[in-house]
Every structure is written in structure tokens, then in C-alpha cells.
Fold this sequence. Notes:
Blueprint: H1 5-30, H2 41-44, H3 52-70, H4 74-97, H5 102-123, H6 125-132
Amino acid sequence: xxxxxxxxxxxxxxxxxxxxxxxxxxxxxxxxxxxxxxxxxxxxxxxxxxxxxxxxxxxxxxxxxxxxxxxxxxxxxxxxxxxxxxxxxxxxxxxxxxxxxxxxxxxxxxxxxxxxxxxxxxxxxxxxxxxxxxx
Length: 135
């Protein structure tokens, strides 16, 4: 069974998030004053102040989920849906307190994208067939 194109796209996004977090963690370790740990806040869900090692660890988690999606492991599909649900939950307070205009649009688009991607991983027949037929 071939991997659906959107599953590949979601896996690539998880890999890009991992690379971003690894870059932040590495730069913070090499030059502590060069970058703020808050740069990774949208992807770390409250763990951004735990230090550069936590940033590297969370980045590894994102990469592991991306790898699992790429290899069609069912645990990665569930983990990706969980991460997306956590992302939506983290965005609700932000959109609730945002000023009208671009911030509301930006947070709304993020919520919509994460909900659509999670729904796709949970419900799409091609995805369910791909993950269940993996040998």
C-alpha cells in the first residue's frame, strides 16, 4: 500500500518542526545569548523555558512522530493526532485574547489546519487503509 500524499506532507511538517527546534537548541547551547528559548514556544506547549536540552528532546519527539508517519506506524498516527489536539488547546487562549485582524486570522488558520489534519488522520479511508495494511 502506498502512503497517501497528505500523510507524507504531514510527516514533512513534523520533520521541519524538529529541525527548527534542534536549531534553536543547538544555537542556545553554542551561543547562549544569541537566541531566546521562547522562539520554540509554539511547538513546545509550555516546555520552552526548561532549557536547550528540553528543546532538543522535544525536537526529537517531533522527528520521531514524523518518522513514524513516514513509515506508516499506527502509534505515530495517534501521537500526531494528540499533538495536534494539544496545539489546538494551546491556541484557544491566544485566539480568545487576540486583537481583531491579522492575529485572529493567523490563530484561526492554525486551529483550522490542525483540526483538518487531525481529522484527516483519524477519518480518511485512504489513511485508515494505509495504516491498517502496513505489514
